[in-house]
Design goal:
Elements: E1 5-6, H1 8-21, E2 25-33, E3 38-50, E4 65-70, E5 77-81, E6 85-88, E7 91-93
Parallel strand pairs: 1-7
Antiparallel strand pairs: 2-3, 2-6, 3-4, 4-5, 6-7
């Protein structure tokens, strides 16, 4: 990652590294509810650690839904769609 841009897969790799070390990071993504087919606007979460996601036998979206825990508030488990990731820390995600 350089020039403050990153690919999606570089960002996920770095997120996993941060999570393994217990270092929270920030993300920005476009919220999307695939059940209702509704977009919820841009979301920013400041203290994130990844968590175990869905298995392939649990969902056909297992490879595209990224599970995380929001440590900036309630500590609630959440998901974001990988393709809708816009920023990881100070890095802008490039297509």
């Amino acid at each position: 990652m350089d020039n403050k841009t990153s690919t999606t897969y570089q960002a996920i790799k770095r997120m996993r590294e941060h999570t393994e070390l217990g270092i929270p990071f920030s993300i920005e993504f476009v919220a999307y509810n695939s059940t209702k087919d509704e977009y919820g606007g841009l979301r920013k979460v400041d203290k994130v650690l990844l968590r175990k996601g869905l298995r392939n036998d649990q969902s056909d979206k297992a490879n595209t839904l990224i599970a995380y825990t929001d440590h900036s508030g309630t500590g609630a488990p959440r998901f974001f769609h990988l393709s809708l990731l816009m920023k990881f820390n100070e890095y802008t995600i490039k297509p």
